[in-house]
Amino acid sequence: MIMWKDTGMGSMLFQLLLVSFVFLSFVDNGSAGVTSKFVRQEWPSDDIPLDNEAFAVPKGQNAPQQVHITQGDYDGNAIIVSWVTPDEPGPSQVRYGTSEKKYDFTAEGTVKNYTFYNYNSGYIHECLVDGLEYDTKYYYEVGVGDSARAFSFQTPPKIHPDAPYKFGIIGDLGQTYNSRSTIEHYMESGGQAVLFVGDLSYSDRYQYHDVGVRWDTWGRFIERSAAYQPWIWTAGNHEIEYMPYMGEVIPFKSYLQRYPTPYAASKSSNPLWYSIRRASAHIIVLSSYSPFVKYTPQWRWLAEEFKRVDREKTPWLIVLMHAPIYNSNEAHFMEGESMRTVFESWFIQHKVDVVYAGHVHAYERSYRVSNIHYNVSGGDRYPVPDKSAPVYITVGDGGNQEGLASRFQDPQPEYSAFREASYGHSTLEIKNRTHAFYHWNRNDDGKRVATDSFMLHNQYWGSSRRRRKLNKNHVHTVLASMPHRLRRPL
Q1: Neighbouring C-beta atoms of residue 210, cutoff 10 Å
Q2: Coil, helix or strand for 61?
Q3: Distance CA 45, CA 399 (A)
Q4: Burial 8-31 (b: 16+ CB within 10 A, else e)
Q5: Closest CA to 331 of 426, 414, 421
Q6: Which InterPro entries match (predicted)?
Q7: Rounded to an integer, what distance in angstroms lies between the CA atom of residue 321 and that of residue 394?
Q8: How far apart are CA 396 and CA 191, in angstroms?
Q9: Is 332 tagged catalytic?
Q10: What would the pLDDT profile of 283-321 be if each residue is shown by its tens digit?
Q11: pLDDT in tens, 385-401
Q12: What is the dihedral of CA 289, 291, 296, 301, to 10 degrees?
């Protein structure tokens, strides 16, 4: 029997053992193959009526609306501001500064519009605001005169391996009452930026003029969050809008007109795939709907982008896509297989920490598994445990009008750690280069309920060799910031 002396050394060793125990329990075992019996359907999956206050048009003649921001460069000290003026172009100018109602700087943007069948968009403004200071709150204004509107945003910390940051993850949102519940609950989470994994407005479920109208309502719907913090966009299948019967055959037409991405900053040739760095994270956005996979422009770009990843500066490597690689729901089963066969080995080789996807309207988290050894003549035919693999998480549960995907495969596959058919969102709170806290929050009867949560260890800095390079204070920092319930042995 080991007797601990009440000394500083004994206390430190105990804390190290405790952190190790919690770490192994939560990362290796998670929720151990759980299929939740909870199925939530608080409201019908109908879109909110057009005259609802959630879609209210701002007061004032030609007032800017649908204001949203995204990251504007590779490293996070620029934003792209977008908005729509409905009646006339007006100025494409952003006035901004570090004091409220005092705008010391201006940035000039561009304006455009487009048609979709017999719908005419408003005037879509896009303005790059660059040269910003890190970790600084800025106030900005768009529009003129009595119709001008003011907002604010916070820039991220400077790129650093131990820069803390909290991301929200939302997918397949739409514009129902359940969608509104997800947005409201996310806004209570303290998230600083949204990683959006595709399927935005679901306007493609409408026809003719109403397609464009439902893009406008969705833009006003998300403004309450997207005007104040960057949403990092991923395109889903509902953004394709290929509608030959209406004479509209240009895929992603509405999406690309309205939601710019900083793709050129990461040397991408297409706004549907790109990369950014933010705080201590390197985020790679992939398109699940690029024709074919191997030897395509996206494939060639990703091969080069992985070479640019520097885990000494941005230890957290996150991939976003729309169609999940691992999915045990009957909905969209194996639709991500072409992406898996080509990119899964790269994710393991480059030690990707987590891959987020949407598409399936339910929540699911995998264990660390891979299926890269099988070929037609032999090898592992099914996914096997692989500590070098990322965690795969499906968060396609934002609340859209298609409803929940509640038919999971039975029995639950061994690669599936936790799954539930409910509406919600996730958060990833990065603490330092080695640890992050992950939560999936079910939107349950008007409350935000943390249903699935665990501590995520970094794939690059998690090896024993690299951990020895760290200052011992990292362990104390992690322990002090852990939720109290995670400190208790399981």
Answers
A1: 15
A2: coil
A3: 7
A4: eeeeeeebeebbeebbeebbeebb
A5: 421
A6: Calcineurin-like_PHP, FN3_dom, Metallo-depent_PP-like, MPP_PAP, PAPs-like, PAPs_C, PAPs_N, Purple_acid_Pase-like_N
A7: 10
A8: 18
A9: yes
A10: 999 999 988 789 999 999 999 999 999 999 999 999 999
A11: 999 999 999 999 999 99
A12: -20
